[in-house]
Amino acid sequence: MISASPSREPAAFLPGVDRAALAVAFADRLRRRGMPVGLTAVQDVVRALEADPPTSLSRLYWAARIGFVRRHAEIEIFDEVFAAVFRGVAVAADPNARRRPGGGGGAPSPTGPRLPAPSREDRGALPWATLPQVVAGAADSAASPAVPERLPGDVSGLADVPFEHLDGRSMELLGEWLRAAVAAWPVRRGRRFAVGPRGRRPALRATLARSRRTGWEPFHLMRERPLDRPRRTVMLCDVSQSMQAEATAYLHMMRALALVAGAEVFAFATSLTRLTPALTHRSAADAVDHATAKVADRFGGTRIAANVHTLLASHHGGTLRGAIVIIGSDGWDSDPPDALAAAMARLRRRANRVIWMNPRASAPGFEPSAGGMAAALPYCDELLPADTFASLRRVIDAIARTRSSSTG
Amino acid sequence: MEGTGTGTGTGTGLVTGTADITRRLDDVGYLVDEGTASALFLALTLGRPLLLEGEPGVGKTTAAKALARALSTPLIRLQCYEGLTAGEALYEWNHQRQLLAIRLAESRHDRLRDADLFTEEFLQERPILRAIRHEGPLPPVLLIDEIDRADDEFEALLFEFLGEAAITIPELGTFAARRPPVVVLTSNRSRDLHDALRRRCLYHWIDFPSPARAAEILRRSVPAAAEPLIRSATDFVGRVRGLDLDKAPGMAETIDWVSALSALGATGLVRQDVVRTLSALAKTPDDRRTIGDALDGLVGTGP
């Protein structure tokens, strides 16, 4: 269908180039950098080059970018690969490759762009999600071998252990246990309707369809009611130095929320990182590994106010509207308290509920006196302790309890 | 001439090249950069839907409107919102008229069959079906505005239309467009769109225009404004966008603001005028204060 022979126009920028081969090779480089490029996209580019033979490098840039790139985050990867491939040609002609910092100087070697950290690295360990491990875990504490329901008992025993005394495997187990707890999530009334006997609004279409059975005489008036939708949820987790012990456990909680309640989840220390795509990986261990690798600034300082502000200003700020916002942090903030108060006030105006989880709150004699915590408290609906998995579960239960009381 | 190749396969032959579409959009008062022009040209030539993303107020919707004007073809607009269903986007049966027809048939003692009730007479066209059945020398431009505001169930509804430019109505059959409409989707990224939707579209990210182009756009949209005012205003907005704001002013706000200044008779940027018209630029109390505090550094020395 597509002729791969060079075009006849003498003005063409790349005379004698096999367009199909060019597009496929380029797509291959993009894929190696982790950018998903489908066959449709490759075909688009070939047809674009055919329809409008590029007369300059910038023409070629736009044709390739519009064909290959499908989301904003991919533009940067594309620019880097484009710069790496066509650096020797005439980069000076292209303002767009120059504009981005990654495009020019720091470009990868000409032999091919350097691969990012490979996702399929071999850890040399057994696959984690196999049955023997769970059995082994159960056999370790084999006090009464007659009890058949071993697993839940084990988990609830572990649930009260502080995070720092848990190993990775128990964490995973508890993460899965948490996932089961997020079953009954608060809902809001949606704008879609479904036919049902409890509805109040007459449903004309259904009434007419029903009347077909009664010789087109509409005997039965059908009604429809609004459908409930799960309330949006956003969770922010502090991964700074002071929260080192809790960080992994909170990642498990975020994963549970992201998978079951469709939450948007973010980690922050000095800057904000969106973890939703990384954490929704099918395997818990991989998900937590990906998420940990993604957060560049973990175990550094904390800037809560700046990060809440960044979230409000970003295009994810819209997901906060009418949402349940959970913040997991100890409230030690290096930004001034009034900056946090201002950011929290804005957050409160958008959110339906704001819940603060503090790992220190269960200590006897705890008072929310840390600068940030004291400033944020007036804008929180609840301050809950979160230092063990049992307390994380209580946080989830506390949110689920509001299911019936607040539907507005 | 640049870009002489017309589309080979599904090409509509509406435009001859990037330069052509740039000129025609220019004629209707819409200035495009090379990237946007390429995106629009490729969407027309390849016959694919175009997904436009960008910050609010960079002119995504305006691009679609201008495209319709430039091609002198009607614009059909579908504004998305949560709960949008096939009944509002594709087609709906006119149930009231169907009920009347049933009564009428009854009084005449006619025999009524299914096929009598589900004919074109009772079919109500909604934007997408209207775009498909459009009769005219040129295909219409269909603008599906702010697709991120619709829920993901609605995206699935669009797939058949975006892929094949066809709609299936179970009672009547499949309607395929004789001339596939030019489809432009816009999104503010408030929700992540599904990959299946992205795969079916060409994608273009519209950047905020450079100061020189912003000035050019202002000259077009606010003809009454004085030249020094336009230049200092674009400069001012460029620096305001560098501040830490809740809502950075887009092109739409800039146009509003310059119109306001020009309505007050300003020929240059004076502190008093800026303060009086700031509400056109700053849309939250916090932003008002931030810009107000930074005003001394932004306006310069005054008159």
TrEMBL record, chain A:
<dbReference type="InterPro" id="IPR036465">
    <property type="entry name" value="vWFA_dom_sf"/>
</dbReference>
<dbReference type="InterPro" id="IPR011195">
    <property type="entry name" value="UCP010256"/>
</dbReference>
<feature type="region of interest" description="Disordered">
    <location>
        <begin position="95"/>
        <end position="123"/>
    </location>
</feature>
<dbReference type="Pfam" id="PF05762">
    <property type="entry name" value="VWA_CoxE"/>
</dbReference>
<dbReference type="InterPro" id="IPR008912">
    <property type="entry name" value="Uncharacterised_CoxE"/>
</dbReference>
<protein>
    <recommendedName>
        <fullName>CoxE</fullName>
    </recommendedName>
</protein>
Automatic annotation (TrEMBL), chain B:
<dbReference type="InterPro" id="IPR050764">
    <property type="entry name" value="CbbQ/NirQ/NorQ/GpvN"/>
</dbReference>
<dbReference type="GO" id="GO:0016887">
    <property type="term" value="F:ATP hydrolysis activity"/>
</dbReference>
<dbReference type="Pfam" id="PF00004">
    <property type="entry name" value="AAA"/>
</dbReference>
<protein>
    <submittedName>
        <fullName>Oxidoreductase</fullName>
    </submittedName>
</protein>
<dbReference type="InterPro" id="IPR003593">
    <property type="entry name" value="AAA+_ATPase"/>
</dbReference>
<feature type="domain" description="AAA+ ATPase">
    <location>
        <begin position="46"/>
        <end position="212"/>
    </location>
</feature>
<dbReference type="GO" id="GO:0005524">
    <property type="term" value="F:ATP binding"/>
</dbReference>
<dbReference type="InterPro" id="IPR003959">
    <property type="entry name" value="ATPase_AAA_core"/>
</dbReference>
<dbReference type="InterPro" id="IPR027417">
    <property type="entry name" value="P-loop_NTPase"/>
</dbReference>
